Amino acid sequence: MARPGPLPRGRGSQEAGAGTLLRLRGVSRAYGQLQALHPLDLDVDRGTCTVLFGHNGSGKSTLLRIAAGRDMPSTGRVLFDGRPIDEDDPEVRARVAVAGDTVAFYPDLTVRDHLELIAVAHDIAGADAWIGQVLADRGLSAHAHHLPSALSSGQIQALTLAAALVRPRDLLLLDEPEQRLDPGARGRLVHLLNGEKDDGVAVLLATHQAELVHAVADHVVVLEDGEVVAAGEPAAVLDPHGGLA
């Protein structure tokens, strides 16, 4: 994404590109008798994109919520920059941006109002320029003064992405960000994600679209019924149609 100035970064002590930012060890999740996620290990490095690939119900969203500190694992631990992740930790809130599987916007605030609120909360310098650029890149400039209720489902998805992008981030977590986007917006998404990597951001996203995996991923983890069935570089793991290579 073209940027009007330096990337608003978090407050991490390490430089971008300096190794693993997110580390999961022995992480699993059970809901009563349902084993939603079997024990797994995962590293996400700065300046790379790791993709969780699988159909609905495979465990992708569960794993993302745990990675964001929004759900507790039944076993194992999650470390963000060497410290246990907790959504309420100010360090995490300042450095981790999430566009998840649930959407909640204030009904009486416009698209631009939402982004301005986020920018103020994170004390973003040059917020007007940032917001204008994010609106343009997400195809929302013409809808900046619209309320969420006036947006299409694809525009709501674009706003969800914009809300994550207007704030500082060292780690970006996305749950099926391509959903409900038209072909042009999907192309912009690929450009965006590759730009995030270039800026040293660690990206972890979930999808069941093989095309997106091959366009942006450095590493792919294939999940089925909560278990890892394959992992590695996209070309070695998936064929162009999403089947195992």
UniProtKB/TrEMBL annotation:
Q: Which residues form the ABC transporter domain?
A: 22-245
List the InterPro entries hit by this protein, alphabetically: AAA+_ATPase (IPR003593), ABC_transporter-like_ATP-bd (IPR003439), ABC_transporter-like_CS (IPR017871), ABC_Transporter_VariousFunc (IPR051782), P-loop_NTPase (IPR027417)
A Pfam family cross-referenced in the UniProt record is ABC_tran
Work out whether the entry's keyword set contains Transport. yes
Keyword list (alphabetical) reads: ATP-binding, Nucleotide-binding, Transport
> SMART domains, alphabetically?
AAA (SM00382)
The domain of life for this entry's organism is Bacteria
Q: What is this protein called?
A: ABC transporter domain-containing protein
Q: Which organism is it from?
A: Streptomyces axinellae
Phylogenetic lineage = Bacteria, Bacillati, Actinomycetota, Actinomycetes, Kitasatosporales
